[in-house]
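Extended Data, panel c. Modelled sequence:
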Amino acid sequence: MRHQRMLVPVLALVLVMVPATSAQAQGEEVPRGPTFAARALQALIDGIQFGVIIAITSVGLSLIFGTIHLINFAHGEFVTIGATFAFFLNVSPAGPGWHLIPAALAAVVFGALLGGAVDRGIWRPLRARGTGLINMFIVTIGLSLLLRHVVLVLYGTRPASYAQYDIQSTIDLGPAGITPRDLTVTLLAVLVLLGVAALLQKTRIGTAVRAVSANRDLAEASGIDVQRVVLFVWMLGGGLAALGGVFFGLVEIVTWDMGFKLLLLMFAGVILGGLGSAYGAMVGSLVIGIVAQMSTLWFPVDLQYAWALLVLILVLLVRPQGILGRAERVG
């Protein structure tokens, strides 16, 4: 017993010293984590990817507000429906088992048709009856709850991934890295946003959308079919939201409430960029995405959305109309 008591502190000392001295004796360098510059570059890449996904989903939200001044609280559910509809076509045993690319295209078409059906079935009759914007906003909340719980019943609560492009090796970009899937999603999102910008600037329907957003009464007096333009905006917003949902589900995971979680950031991007401005929604969403990811360099990940919203507040204190919004005179 006496010898055993003497061995205890000796063994403890050996266990403490051996790991520290073995690496030094062999001349090996102690492995170090990535530098701050490498982590900052990685956060910037992740922020750009996150920002362009938010931008795709928020453009329709901004255009809807610009044309009929409605804050569509159910827009997040269009994101979820797009992601889960593609999941049904791609993964679900009850679905056809399509590859993700045609499944995503079908989800975009379904999202556009859903947006058009919601406008024709709900919002156009309410506008014809002269329903106030506050009442219509309350209706969007009820529609959001209805659609979210329909998705919950049909999809379930278990998070899942698509069948393709799930696990991939990383492409090294100097000290940072990105998977081919994430790089493709980012590039496709940028191309889609450029396409939307070209649509608004170079086509007749795009010119009509901008005219209705600028002055609805004047546009109607000049011969523009405002109801047709509004229907187009709802279909465009629904299709873009569905595509953003597929992209978000691809780089993250598909859940029944993913659109609702993204909705606050969509509103932040729209408000930061300037209410009613599609280009402002793009810029504001990109800023929100970058700030959210860059904040993780100093603060916990759980607070990344909070810092993005803090930047929104600071910018609005300096420029109340948003980054690309137009200042309006009150009174």
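The longest strand covers residues 171-173. This feature is highlighted in the accompanying rendering.
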